[in-house]
């Protein structure tokens, strides 16, 4: 019995006739609609009655959303491997990671030669294919240093630049029948893709044995290699193989899984009814039978990682125990996706495992699993993570990036449901066509989850308030994995705590937030010479406090060479543009103006996502946060001094008055409802001690946790007034008594008072 335990997949194998070009496109679209996983096309570039396969795949990729695409198999002799690699990567990026690569060494040599290709012997063609695989994988290895050089007999690459990397690990499946090709499958390929009618000698068991022996000889687990099979037939009443009704097909395919090791079946048919029958009757029934047989036999299933990845595993993590529903998307050190998920926007990390759930139940499973490891655990919504707690070293990370939906629940009530993994720029873009907006931060790349559980000091703050002030309910996974609804009627104490200290209470998997009606806004930017920083800051603060609520200005002061410059960027969220101009003009005379702009545009353009890489590139910085009522003389002098001495090269001031302060202090766990400004400074580590002494001179009455990176114990008492912190400790005792969620400014549970 040779069952490699791979999940079952099903596809179509279509003929790209060009007589009716739309017909094959329609069949590809149908393949997706009826539930197939893969659509493949013959690739015979010398065939004048066929559409070019890669052109066709590009067209089909644009017409579909989910299904994977591949040549079956791609004709290597007429497609130079370096160019083919870039074609594959480009289409994979454009399609969202849906391109796979079936590859052949070549056949029909007369036709290939007639098209300008080079005729090769069978042995030569296998060697050429081996070299081509090295070239293609070298091109895709965009993160590797140095130019690509391959000095092969048939393919040479002499210093080519690498890239682009495809969106996912593109598997290379080889169409192979003879021992030499089968050995190449075992050595280098990700899959074996024969057609059943052509497998004779070696037989299927013999071919699998050749592949497995070659894989083991090259240090690979044979289970790394998926076995795919092209099958053809009709649905009828005959007892012959693949000529009967669907249930007979299932009986005939079952041994090909359990004994032949195949896990992907690609049905060669251009008949839409047959494709639908295969997808909706054969596929689910076969999956059900295989699952039952595997359970009975105790067959090992799930993703198989190569030895190179296994060597990077960290101690203390039960990698084999990852829940089945999470294993396929889990990322380990050594996996291709690891560089993308190990760090946050600013902070480097090296977790031992990143789990990427896609549903609330998978979040629950991920949490239970992570708890069982007894290692550091971080929860990441997918945004900036400035406070450094969205990753770790050697522990687990639960990445909520896939929970990124944005749904309007009730337009009349302006109620929107948002997943924690969404980015605020995507939220703004989704709401703009409906004339709605939700105030968030000042960057479209910030994730929803972290901001909507901490506060949300954004560019609509003075008119809209904090983001948390408009959260009307949340779905939460608690420390024990239970899922609850928290709102004003259900778990109200939890609902209160989530809005300001949510990271301590559970994992929010969706937020119900009340949006505001909002058309176009005025977005203004003014660049001042801030040589006299103290005087400038004091004047700027007075103007902000005197401005109407429609205006929310932010300020950042930076050193640019020998010049100190201040950039005001402000949003006017009102209809009176003349009034806006008058108010904004008041900011111009406070210092020499270097540049100014004001534009009427959608709010979604103000917070458009930039999709900056999360490579942890700023690990040397420390940030400090503080909330003040006014930019008084002391505040201005301290901030100016930090800049003048070089303790910091960046200071930001956010205006947080107006609507923010309309909310009672005890309404949410964010209790700071008197201050008008939120201060942040990026401290250079070599000056950290001196800068901290100066920072303590500020008349702060609180801080914003998302902008504080260190000294967490002290920060906690500044972020939460004493009464608020005591109430949070009681909520913590009720919902997380074992302090599972302790990686982000941990609040210790209250100790029960004995009677």
What would you note in describing this structure?
This protein has 755 residues and is of the alpha/beta class. It starts with 8 loop residues before the first strand and ends in a 20-residue tail after the last helix.
Q: DSSP helix count?
A: 24
The biggest beta sheet reads: 9 strands, parallel
Quote the average pLDDT. Answer: 94
Assembly classification: single chain
Q: Tell me what portion of residues adopts beta-strand conformation.
A: 15-25%
* Helix percent band: 25-40%
> Structural class of the secondary elements?
alpha/beta
- If strands are numbered along the chain, what order do they take across the biggest sheet? 3-2-1-11-10-9-8-5-4
Q: Low-confidence spans: pLDDT under 50, at least 5 residues?
A: none
Please state the overall shape, judged from the principal axes of the Cα atoms: elongated
* First and last CA, distance: 65 Å
Number of strands: 28
Write down the Rg.
30 Å
């Amino acid at each position: 019995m040779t069952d490699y335990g791979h999940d079952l997949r099903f596809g179509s194998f279509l003929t790209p006739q060009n007589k009716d070009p739309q017909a094959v496109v329609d069949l590809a679209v149908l393949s997706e609609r009826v539930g197939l996983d893969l659509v493949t096309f013959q690739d015979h570039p010398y065939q004048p009655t066929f559409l070019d396969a890669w052109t066709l795949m590009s067209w089909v990729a644009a017409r579909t959303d989910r299904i994977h695409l591949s040549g079956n198999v791609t004709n290597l002799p007429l497609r130079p491997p370096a160019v083919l690699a870039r074609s594959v990567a480009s289409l994979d990026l454009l399609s969202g990671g849906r391109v796979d690569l079936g590859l052949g060494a070549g056949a029909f040599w007369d036709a290939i030669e007639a098209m300008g290709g080079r005729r090769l012997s069978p042995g030569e063609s296998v060697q050429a294919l081996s070299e081509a695989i090295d070239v293609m994988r070298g091109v895709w290895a965009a993160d590797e240093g140095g130019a690509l050089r391959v000095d092969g007999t048939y393919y040479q690459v002499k210093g080519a630049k690498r890239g682009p990397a495809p969106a996912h690990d593109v598997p290379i499946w080889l169409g192979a029948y003879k021992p030499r090709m089968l050995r190449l499958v075992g050595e280098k390929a990700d899959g074996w893709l024969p057609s059943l009618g052509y497998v004779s000698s070696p037989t299927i068991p013999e071919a699998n044995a050749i592949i497995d022996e070659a894989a083991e000889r090259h240090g690979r687990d044979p289970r790394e290699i998926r076995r795919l099979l092209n099958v053809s037939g009709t649905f009828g009443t005959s007892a012959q193989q693949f000529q009967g009704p669907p249930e007979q097909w299932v009986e005939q395919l079952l041994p090909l899984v359990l004994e032949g090791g195949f896990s992907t079946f690609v049905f060669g048919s251009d008949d839409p009814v047959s494709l639908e029958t295969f997808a909706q009757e054969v596929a689910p029934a076969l999956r059900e039978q295989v699952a039952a047989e595997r359970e009975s036999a105790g067959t090992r299933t799930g993703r198989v990682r190569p030895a190179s990845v296994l060597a990077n595993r960290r101690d203390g993590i039960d990698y084999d125990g990852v829940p089945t529903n999470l294993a396929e998307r889990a990322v380990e050190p050594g996996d291709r996706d690891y560089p993308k998920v190990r760090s946050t926007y600013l902070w480097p990390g090296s977790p031992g495992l990143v789990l990427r759930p896609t549903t609330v139940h998978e979040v629950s499973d991920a949490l239970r699993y992570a708890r069982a490891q007894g290692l550091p655990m971080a929860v990441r919504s997918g945004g900036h993570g400035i406070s450094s707690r969205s990753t770790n070293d050697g522990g687990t990370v639960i990445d909520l990036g896939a929970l990124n939906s944005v749904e309007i629940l009730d337009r009349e009530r302006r109620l929107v449901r948002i997943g924690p993994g969404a980015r605020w720029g995507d939220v703004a873009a989704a709401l703009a066509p409906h004339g709605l907006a939700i105030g968030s931060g000042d960057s479209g790349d910030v994730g929803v989850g972290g901001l909507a559980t901490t506060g949300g000091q954004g560019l609509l703050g003075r008119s809209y308030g904090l983001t948390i002030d408009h959260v009307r309910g949340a779905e939460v996974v608690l420390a024990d994995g239970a899922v609850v609804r928290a709102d004003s009627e259900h778990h109200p104490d939890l609902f209160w705590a989530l809005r300001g200290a949510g990271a301590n209470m559970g994992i929010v998997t969706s937020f119900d937030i009340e949006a505001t009606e909002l058309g176009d806004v005025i977005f203004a930017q003014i660049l001042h010479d801030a040589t006299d920083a103290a005087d400038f800051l004091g004047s700027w603060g007075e103007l902000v406090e005197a401005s109407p609520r429609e205006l929310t200005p932010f300020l950042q002061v930076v050193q640019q060479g020998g010049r100190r410059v201040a950039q005001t960027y402000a949003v006017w969220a009102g209809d009176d543009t003349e009034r806006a101009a008058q108010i904004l003009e008041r900011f111009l005379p406070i210092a020499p103006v270097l540049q100014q702009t004001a534009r009427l545009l959608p709010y979604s353009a103000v917070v458009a996502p930039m999709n900056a890489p999360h490579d942890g590139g700023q690990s040397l910085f420390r940030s400090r946060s503080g909330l003040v009522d006014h930019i008084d003389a002391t505040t201005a002098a301290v901030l100016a001094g930090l800049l003048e001495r070089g303790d910091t090269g960046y200071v930001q001031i956010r205006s947080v008055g107006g609507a923010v302060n309309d909310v009672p202090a005890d309404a949410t766990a964010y209790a700071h409802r008197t201050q008008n400004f939120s201060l942040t400074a990026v401290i250079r580590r070599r000056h950290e001690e001196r800068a901290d002494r100066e920072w303590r001179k500020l008349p702060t009455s609180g801080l914003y946790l998302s902008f504080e990176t260190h000294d967490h114990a002290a920060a906690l008492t500044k972020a939460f007034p004493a009464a608020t912190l005591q109430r949070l400790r009681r909520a913590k005792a009720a919902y997380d008594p074992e302090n599972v969620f302790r990686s982000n400014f941990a609040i210790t549970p209250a100790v029960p008072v004995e009677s």
